[in-house]
Amino acid sequence: MTQTQIFEAIQSNQLLASSLWINIALAGLSILLFLYMGRNLEDPRAQLIFVAAMMVPLVSISSYTGLISGLTVSFLEMPAGHALAGQEVLTPWGRYLTWALSTPMILIALGLLAGSNMTKLFTAVTADIGMCVTGLAAALTTSSYMLRWVWYVISCAFFVVVLYILLAEWAEDAEIAGTAEIFNTLKVLTVVLWLGYPIFWALGAEGLAVLDVAITSWAYSGMDIIAKYLFAFLLLRWVADNERTVSDVAAGLGSVSRSG
Ligand code: RET
Question: Could you give the ipTM of this predicted complex?
Fold first, then answer.
């Protein structure tokens, strides 16, 4: 299928197209709002959190532009064993690719907030990229139904590493850094929402095909709105109000200062 045909297929499915357009609009608004919210930040650590948070809607607007244009969407024939075996299934693989760029930004912002050391930050980010790239491989594998699920399991293994760092390591670091309250809010929001992604992948057309393509797309789009824009908004609002606390977070040194 040509890109124009894919573009037309997306546009003719209103439910699908609206799930993409809404995110382009919200990402655009978020970019403007976040620029305004971060305009007075002076501490380099607070600024670094700001840059990471800014990257989230910037990657998102690019990601959704790729999807709506048909550039990062393919019709893939599902292998034997799949519920839609032999059919060409609309696969928005650009989502999984761009998660490899957006989700590390979320983790970098969270790790900096928690006062993570470099080892934990590196581990979380690399495992997260591993999760997204193997998730992409799962969606793009058309030779074997079984191997699609092998990729899925590998991706889940990476995800467990990310969850461990968020729930155990950084939660403890944030207590020491004096940022536990906001960190815990953002941690719960992140963990609960991120768990939704593998669930919808499994239920959607790529997996068991219980849900149709447009419904799955809305599920991801809805989770994105909270996991990205609401997440970054709450984080930036707190950082702008507590710049002193952020600048006192000494990475990896176990600082106990609580000024701010
Ligand atoms: C996949 C499928 C394979 C198994 C697992 C997955 C996890 C994906 C996650 C995505 C989070 C995305 C976010 C995007 C916002 O920009 C790839 C769906 C574990 C957790 C937060």
Answer: 0.98
